[in-house]
Amino acid sequence: MSLYRTLLKAAPCTRSSSTSQWLSRKRGIATQGSARKAAIEKSPLAGIRVLDMTRVLAGPYCTQILGDLGAEIIKIEHPTRGDDTRSWGPPDLAYTDGVERSFPGESAYYLSVNRNKKSLGLSFNNPAGISILHKLVKQCDVLVENYLPGSLAKYQLDYAAISKINPSLIYASITGYGQTGPYSDRAGYDVMVEAEMGLMHITGERDRPPVKVGVAVTDISTGMYTAIGVLAALYSRKETGLGQWIDASLSDCQVAGLANIASSCLVTGKKDSGRWGTAHATVVPYRAYETKDTNIAVGGCNDKLYGILCDKLGKPEWKSDPRFVTNALRVKHRDVLDAMVEAELQLRTTQEWLSIFEGSGMPYAAVNDIQGTINHEHVLARNMIEEVNHPACGKVKLVNHPVKYSRIEPKIRSAPPMLGEHTSEVLQELLGFGEDEISYLRDNQTVA
Q1: What is the distance between the alpha carbons of residues 214 and 203, in angstroms, rounded to a whole number?
Q2: Which residue from 164, 81, 182 is spatially nearest to 122, judged by alpha carbons?
Q3: Hey, which residues does 106 pair with through a beta bridge?
Q4: Regions of the chain with pLDDT less than 70
Q5: What is the pLDDT of residues 79-115, one digit of tens each?
Q6: GO molecular function, one example (predicted)?
Q7: Are the CB atoms for 146 and 113 separated by under 8 Å?
Q8: What is the helix (H) or strand (E) element at residue 77, kind and residue range?
Q9: Which of 417, 446, 396 is nearest to 74 (CA)?
């Protein structure tokens, strides 16, 4: 019991406000001593340490971005089941090391958003686990969590408690509907927010039921907005020395993502124009059409481009057809013109049309499936798919960081971690725990 009591000594400390302010201003970044200038130039967040208490998609997507930019990400996972998405297979990348585990492999979903992280298997529903998190908070610059509002307060892991332990910490909360407002207590899932906040209503074929976007775009945009918020807060801390609480929600980010559609309704005071499938509400022709074998998207977005399309289709007379001479008229006669364009495109294969349109200056593209995309010559040329070594699965291909820089080098430094892969490393190197202490915690199922 004496060892157990020792582990509880990291309860939140209460410093005087003047001392806390002095410490926060002196703090800089958590691992500043190890962040050399050359390393920061290549990885701009080198020396920043992030405590990642998120699961599923929006939160892990946010912390993966920070990890790509060089931050050290310590991912807190339940010691037996881990991140929810570990069980969201198939498909799973099979283990090849011959070790029997509770999972059949590493799920593709989990692998997609957890590279460049360290996994600490930790239960914090007991005092020892809470104590460990409080110790870690002192060593970190950022904490990102995606629990329901108020649910971490009973563990003294809410912002009010954590900011007393580390006043310079940036604390980012990701929720479905935010920390305030009538819906704040609702659990937030991408498809529900797509429905509630308008995106589903404008997605799908004309005169057909609404559909969700093919990928959880609201989760992804929220992850990106939160990463932007963390970067802004880190920049602000350079001057103030103080952290702050970031309140990011799927609902707010989805409303922001409505962009010109929301603006049109604000300007006119009228309803939106509904679903348009792959077409555009105010530009014709501009959509995906059937070809002889698959589909192709083309855009006659202005009079010049419309003329190019007509010439490439072998129908120059369409340029002077009184029904189509302006975009407004083409919109008015949308159904007629779209049918005419598609009838011509159906005479050849997609590849034949790609060759015909090549170099024309007109926007066009094959409608590729996902295998076609990840094996696309341009995608590969841009190094968007990278193969890395996984400790239990061998080679794994991952989608790479998308933004290229002239000086810095965001990259995949490590494969998504196994559950608890770095538990001992984090406890020993950051918190100074000995092997006996870690064994005790494992025996009591506090860590894994």
Answers
A1: 10
A2: 81
A3: 93
A4: 1-37, 39-40
A5: 999 999 999 999 999 999 989 888 889 999 999 999 9
A6: succinate-hydroxymethylglutarate CoA-transferase activity
A7: no
A8: strand 72-77
A9: 417
